């Protein structure tokens, strides 16, 4: 791999969780730390403050185990995908931006949060989610069954708009059923990953 180091002999290295895709930190490498990273499969930086090689986790035990290294289009920055062992930031947070390093499923994650909030507020007069949860898990499960049947019926028709509408209803109610059972999309992902060969 061709790497263009700057005038100080350094290249920025963006550290990304290989699973969640969240950016964990930014560090700098020189040629020696890059070679050590390749050799050990554990991220080693050149510490500008200590003026020496520094393996992330050498004191805390929170190592960054390398999964993949990519160079950008100009060959002057690295993207290193890792499996982190513990929090990445020296302050104890998951990332150096004080963010939790959790999986994000786009709008589905937002919807999970909305469902959680509406269930917690228990405003059955204003919230469909709260009112359905108040009726118990059997009603939530029944609603998933109804939406599944409606989705299957629309799948056999030629109206794609109605099929997508019913599919959205099914997914929404399924997210509610997951929460009613104490699970999230993360649990489903874990199950599917376990089945993947």
Automatic annotation (TrEMBL):
In this chain, the stretch annotated as Phosphoribosyl-AMP cyclohydrolase covers 1-107
One Gene Ontology term of the molecular function aspect? phosphoribosyl-AMP cyclohydrolase activity
Q: In which pathway does it act?
A: Amino-acid biosynthesis; L-histidine biosynthesis; L-histidine from 5-phospho-alpha-D-ribose 1-diphosphate: step 2/9; Amino-acid biosynthesis; L-histidine biosynthesis; L-histidine from 5-phospho-alpha-D-ribose 1-diphosphate: step 3/9
Q: Where in the cell is it found?
A: Cytoplasm
CDD domains per the record? Answer: NTP-PPase_HisIE_like (cd11534)
Q: Which residues form the Phosphoribosyl-AMP cyclohydrolase domain?
A: 25-97
Enzyme Commission number(s) of this protein: 3.5.4.19, 3.6.1.31
Give the UniProt keywords, A-Z: Amino-acid biosynthesis, ATP-binding, Cytoplasm, Histidine biosynthesis, Hydrolase, Multifunctional enzyme, Nucleotide-binding
Task: Provide the residue span(s) of the region labelled Phosphoribosyl-ATP pyrophosphohydrolase.
Answer: 108-197
Q: Which InterPro entries match?
A: His_synth_HisIE, HisE, PRib-ATP_PPHydrolase-like, PRib_AMP_CycHydrolase_dom, PRib_AMP_CycHydrolase_sf
Q: Which reaction does it catalyse?
A: 1-(5-phospho-beta-D-ribosyl)-5'-AMP + H2O = 1-(5-phospho-beta-D-ribosyl)-5-[(5-phospho-beta-D-ribosylamino)methylideneamino]imidazole-4-carboxamide; 1-(5-phospho-beta-D-ribosyl)-ATP + H2O = 1-(5-phospho-beta-D-ribosyl)-5'-AMP + diphosphate + H(+)
HAMAP family attached here?
Answer: HisE, HisIE
NCBIfam families recorded: histidine_hisI (TIGR03188), PRK00051.1 (NF000768), PRK02759.1 (NF002747)
Family of this protein? In the N-terminal section; belongs to the PRA-CH family. In the C-terminal section; belongs to the PRA-PH family.
Q: What name does UniProt use for this protein?
A: Histidine biosynthesis bifunctional protein HisIE
Which species is the source of this protein?
Algibacter miyuki
Q: Which gene encodes it?
A: hisIE
């Amino acid at each position: 791999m061709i790497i263009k180091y700057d005038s100080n002999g350094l290249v920025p290295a963006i550290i990304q969780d290989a699973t969640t895709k969240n950016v964990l930190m930014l560090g700098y490498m020189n040629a020696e730390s890059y070679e050590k990273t390749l050799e050990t499969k554990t991220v080693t930086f050149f510490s500008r403050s200590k003026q020496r090689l520094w393996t992330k986790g050498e004191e805390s035990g929170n190592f960054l185990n390398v999964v993949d290294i990519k160079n950008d289009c100009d060959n002057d920055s690295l993207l290193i995908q890792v499996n982190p062992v513990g929090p990445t930031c020296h302050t104890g947070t998951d990332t150096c931006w004080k963010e939790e390093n959790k999986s994000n499923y786009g709008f589905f994650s937002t919807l999970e949060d909305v469902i959680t909030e509406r269930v917690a507020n228990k405003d059955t007069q204003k919230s469909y989610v709260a009112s359905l949860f108040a009726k118990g898990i059997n009603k939530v499960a029944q609603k998933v069954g109804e939406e599944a049947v409606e989705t299957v019926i629309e799948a056999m028709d030629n109206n794609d708009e109605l099929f997508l509408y019913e599919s959205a209803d099914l997914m929404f109610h399924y997210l509610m059923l997951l929460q009613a059972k104490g699970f999230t999309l993360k649990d489903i992902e874990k199950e599917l990953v376990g089945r993947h060969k």
